[in-house]
Write a structure and sequence with these properties.
This protein is of the alpha+beta class. It has 2 domains: 122 residues, PH-domain like (Roll), CATH 2.30.29; 109 residues, no CATH class. Helices cover 43% and strands 26% of the residues. Strands 1, 2, 3, 4, 8 and 9 form a 6-stranded antiparallel beta sheet that branches. Strands 5-6-7 form a 3-stranded antiparallel beta sheet. Strand 2 and strand 3 form a beta hairpin. Helix 6 runs antiparallel to helix 7.
């Protein structure tokens, strides 16, 4: 709830609807915040505060409900070219770093049968973990980079054995397949669920309440770092899209009767009551 949580209520103001519409996540700033849209009988409020420290980053905007002339909502997938290119660079650096470290640690025992077994076991384990973490692309990238480096190293060491002719083919093919999977993970990293929300006012331009996956906490830094911010849909995003227009229209046209109408759904209350779901 926004009202009475550092935001002072107007005289006679009561909450009609409250939506956890999204979550801000900024890799660049290390910020995570829940975005809440709250409809009262007087205003529409939006607030997102840093979950770690509300005093560090807080985004707040509001508009009188009588001034709202329209709204625009989008919920779906977005794709960032900059994030994709950054993911490719990070991916290459991870594979290179892993290769150099592992090569330095194992070079003296390159022909050891036990070492090859251990490398195979770790490589398969890392590849399996990367597959499990495919829904968490950054973690998946790290494990997959380790697996690529290990399979490349196994292929290299196989050619150093006296009987190693042709034995490096399998790990080399595994490494190539994992490179393709690495591209898929980078694509997943650049593709995001996002929500875009704009309220339009009769008297001001631009929109006094605007929520976007590529602004807010990164609004004062470069376009490149803005792409490191995402605003993912929250648990109430779909419900907000379905009913917010009707809530605003009823309150504007029906006044107290509109509030009573939505009160029958069990979500209206004064600022001292806990919202019921």
């Amino acid at each position: 709830m926004i009202l009475n949580n550092r935001i002072v209520a107007c005289e006679g103001e009561m909450v009609v609807r409250s939506y956890k519409c999204g979550v801000y996540k900024s890799l660049f700033l290390g910020t995570k915040a829940d975005g809440v849209v709250e409809v009262t009988n007087r205003r529409i409020l939006f607030k997102a505060s840093d979950s770690a420290d509300e005093n560090r980053n807080t985004l707040y905007s509001e508009i009188p409900i009588s001034e709202v002339s329209g709204l625009s909502l989008f919920k779906g997938l977005s794709f960032s070219i900059v994030a994709f290119l950054a993911g490719l660079i990070v991916s290459g650096l991870l594979v290179y770093a892993a290769s150099q470290i592992l090569s330095g640690l194992t070079r003296e025992h390159a022909t050891s049968g036990l070492l090859k077994f251990v490398l195979w076991a770790i490589a398969i384990g890392a590849a399996y973990q990367a597959y499990r973490d495919r829904v968490k692309p950054f973690r998946g990238l790290m494990f997959n980079a380790l697996a690529i480096a290990l399979f490349t190293l196994i292929a290299q060491y196989a050619t150093m054995s006296y009987d190693g002719r042709g034995k490096g083919t399998l790990p080399l093919l595994a490494g190539l397949l994992l490179m393709g999977f690495q591209l898929y993970l980078v694509f997943r990293l650049a593709r995001r669920n996002t929500i875009d929300f704009h309220l339009f006012s009769r008297s001001t331009q631009p929109s006094p309440v605007a929520i976007s996956g590529f602004s807010a906490f990164d609004a004062r830094i470069s376009e490149i770092t803005r792409t490191m911010t995402s605003f993912a849909p929250g648990e109430d995003a779909t419900r907000m899209m379905n009913e917010l227009g009707a809530v605003i229209s009823d309150i504007q046209s029906m006044g107290d009767f509109g509030i009573e109408k939505w009160a029958r759904t069990g979500q209206v209350g004064n600022t001292n009551q806990t919202e019921e779901r």
